[in-house]
Task: inverse folding
């Protein structure tokens, strides 16, 4: 049994080595070997897109779990990726119509292969992302890294936090159950309270001038907000967020800043 297992691992390692040497791999990743020296790494960082999006150098201390609060920023990112995958799965079966929305979710849970798992995963991961983004924001605040030179990234982050909350809120509406219906009317009333442009924002969100007329148009608006507007906006802002992290470099714990590596 052991021989079979280790034989398989050997084969896998050899196959991986062959793949890394293949032209296909080199054309995409622009390197075939792991870097041996710092000069190798810097050259690779210039050539490969996938390495280039990471900072050229990073202090081991910046990556400590105690400093980044269990890598909350990275966890938020991976939750977003998994939410996108499970969301696309749900989109295939969900029907954004006031008559059929709730039924389509019941159908996803009871009749679609993997449906119950995907639906529950999407719901819980969405709630978890609100918590992880909030903890990440708290860590940035607590360690004072919202200050120069990362103040622009902090502002971007505040928008990311608001978008994340808006994402979770718009998701609540889509089943069009009692919770969804009343969440829509509450959102409409809150929007109406915005000074000067309240009625216009309310109309943009609900598609009607009176909250009592909320119906199909409101659901369609929230569907577009949840599956198109917010995803496009968050992808754009996360890209700039990551680009800024690369440019500003990862911070160090305040007491170790400026002490060298
Ligand atoms: C979708 C939401 C977000 C994602 C995916 C995300 C991702 C990340 C990642 C991966 C890092 C680098 C590692 C780390 O420090 O954990 C980071 C750093 C940072 N984030 Fe976020 N973030 C998000 C939201 C926010 C929010 C809400 C804020 C603040 C309002 C924020 C402000 C910052 C700042 C200032 C840094 C640099 C921190 C440093 O170098 O110490 N981010 N983010």
Result:
């Amino acid at each position: 049994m052991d021989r079979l297992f280790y034989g398989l691992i050997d084969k896998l390692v050899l196959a991986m080595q062959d793949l890394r040497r293949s032209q296909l791999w080199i054309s995409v990743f622009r390197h075939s070997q792991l870097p041996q020296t710092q000069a190798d790494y810097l050259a690779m960082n210039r050539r490969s897109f996938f390495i280039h999006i990471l900072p050229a150098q990073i202090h081991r201390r910046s990556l400590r779990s105690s400093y980044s609060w269990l890598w909350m920023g990275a966890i938020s990112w991976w939750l977003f990726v998994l939410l996108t995958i499970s969301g696309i799965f749900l989109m295939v079966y969900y029907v954004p119509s006031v008559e059929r929305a709730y039924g389509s979710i019941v159908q996803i849970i009871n009749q679609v292969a993997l449906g119950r798992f995907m639906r529950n995963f999407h719901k819980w991961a969405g709630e978890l992302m609100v918590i992880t983004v909030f903890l990440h924001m708290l860590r940035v605040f607590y360690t004072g890294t919202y200050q120069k030179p990362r103040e622009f990234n902090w502002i971007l982050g505040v928008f990311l936090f608001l978008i994340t909350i808006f994402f979770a809120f718009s998701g609540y509406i889509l089943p069009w159950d009692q919770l969804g219906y009343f969440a829509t009317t509450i959102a409409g009333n809150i929007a109406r309270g915005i000074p000067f442009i309240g009625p216009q924002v309310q109309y943009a969100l609900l598609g009607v001038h009176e909250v009592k007329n909320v119906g199909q148009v409101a659901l369609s608006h929230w569907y577009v907000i949840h599956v198109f507007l917010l995803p496009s906006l968050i992808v754009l802002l996360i890209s700039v967020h990551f680009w800024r992290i690369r440019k500003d470099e990862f911070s160090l714990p305040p007491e170790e800043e400026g002490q060298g590596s």
About this structure: The mean pLDDT is 92. The domain at 70-251 is CATH 1.20.810.10 (Cytochrome Bc1 Complex; Chain C).
